[in-house]
Amino acid sequence: MSEIAKKYPPGFRPRRGLNWFLIGLLYASFYTCRYNFRWATPGMVAEFGFSKFQITSMLSAWALAYGTGQLINGLLTDRIGGKKAMLIGAVGTIAINLVYGFASLISTFATFSLIWLINGYVQSFGAPGMIKMNAAWFHRTERGTFAGIFGFMIQLGQFAINNLAPVILAGFTVGMLVVAQGDWRWLFRIPPLITAAAAILLAIFVKQTPEEAGHPNVIEHAGETAGAAVTTSIRESFVTIFTHPLVWFYAIAYACTGAVRNSSDQLAILYFVEQLKLNMEAKPPAVFWTMNLMPLVAVIGSFSAGIISDKVFKGHRSPVAMGLYFLETIVILVAAVVIMSGMVGPTPAGLFLGCLFLVLISLTANSTHAIVGTAAPMDIGGRKMAGFASGVIDSFQYYGAAIALPATGWLIDKYGWGVWYPTMASFGAIGGCSMLLVMRKQKRMTAAGDSRALSR
What we know:
This protein is mostly helical. 75% of the residues lie in helices and 1% in strands.
């Protein structure tokens, strides 16, 4: 047992586990109200004739609002606290999804884009709130591991919608409630109920800090005393994080994670329908296994990357992230060559290869997601400023997606699905180079005696 684990008082670890579980449950429920969109895309295309460019533009609007919201709400979270931030996000997410699900009388591209843009903004309260609260409960050398474990909770949201959505699209009857087959609007009416239940549990049981839960002076943070306040002024948070010498390298790398992760996640269902010729209403096994394996391998990748960065690299995130970005690039390039050869298509072998590559991309992209997007902001911001550190870094994940998605959609409309993977590969390479620059910068900072080099 580590020295850190030995010093924890009786009752601390179970209380932290309860906190961690309920925060993760609410954040996972946000995913059910986010990834429901991808299951609705074939229905919206069939009903309204939307092009891939229009679908990806709606997703881009969501990503742009989410990224900007990360910056604004990250600052706000450091002021009001993580618990209030997550609850504000939950209420907004519930309301906006219900609006989307009942917006049948004014169903236009502009209307759907605006509603989904607002959903992006309100959901952006979630990540800063989650990261800020967890920063107060975990020591720096635990954060990578627990970021990986937390990735499991997050992916439960994907797992839930991946299994709930086919049931909704297949249609069902419960008492007087009748959900017609293929009625995609119910994808936005049922998941908010999950978010509502999770929000109630968080409001009742979650504490923002160990001190609030009766465990003072347990977690110490670099540059802070144990038990220090977890809120700070907007000015202090803004200046400290914006001038941090490492934060922008992580932000650029995370933009590349967002470009790959959102592209592979959000376009997967359209890819199944158009390239692999699968019928979603028939609940094809290939889709079931692929969409559930993607979050499963994401958990394995996140957990493994977190442990390796904590235990092998002693809390250093950049070497692990750099290796993952370059591995991701290699995987995508191999996939691109195979797809261009014509081997991927509506045949047993073609289906297997098409699904396999999506699973492998999910593994590599989500491994960087955990350590760059969750552990690094906690290292940089500490318990006082983790909200804004998360906001800055995470915002770039969605700015990357906002740029990449419509560009990818336009390219697919014009040249076909063969351009999808090469587009993603370029972002993986840029992410790896950004992490290489972080490592070089840290060496210079360490040589100069800059304590901020510990934020790795």
